[in-house]
Amino acid sequence: MQRTGIIIGFAMLILASEARAREFGGHDCSDDCSGHAAGYRWAEANSITSDSDCPLRGGAFSFYEGCLVYVEDPSRGADEDDDGDDID
């Protein structure tokens, strides 16, 4: 009985580590980080240098956060998440 509990606990730990959220510039992505990448690219194309110039309209938080990431680190790029996985 105890062995079953240990196995189940270990399996849950593996699943939890595989299901961790993706991040872009330290911000959690809701799915594929494409909103963050879009905000970063917009800020780059518009030479944004201040977080006060990052637009927050409606519920576009990921776009806003992507813009903030550009302001904080304009050499980061928008093609990968924080783990180096490609953003489509």
Describe it for me?
With 88 residues, the chain is mainly alpha-helical. The chain has one domain (22-88). It is built from 3 helices and 2 strands. The protein has a two-stranded antiparallel sheet with strand order 1-2. The protein is globular, with a radius of gyration of 17 Å.
Write the layout of secondary structure elements.
Elements lengths: L1 H17 L4 E2 L2 E2 L5 H12 L15 H12 L16
Antiparallel strand pairs: 1-2
Helix pairs in contact: 2-3
Key attributes of the depicted protein:
88 residues, mainly alpha, 3 helices
**What's the SSE pattern?**
HEEHH
Main sheet overview: 2 strands, antiparallel
Strand content: under 5%
Radius of gyration: 17 Å
Strand order in space, largest sheet: 1-2
What would the principal axes of the Cα set say about the shape?
Answer: globular
Please bin the fraction of helical residues. Answer: 40-55%
**Uncertain residue ranges:** 9-18
End-to-end separation in angstroms reads 45 Å
Please report the total strand number as a whole number: 2
Secondary-structure-based class equals mainly alpha
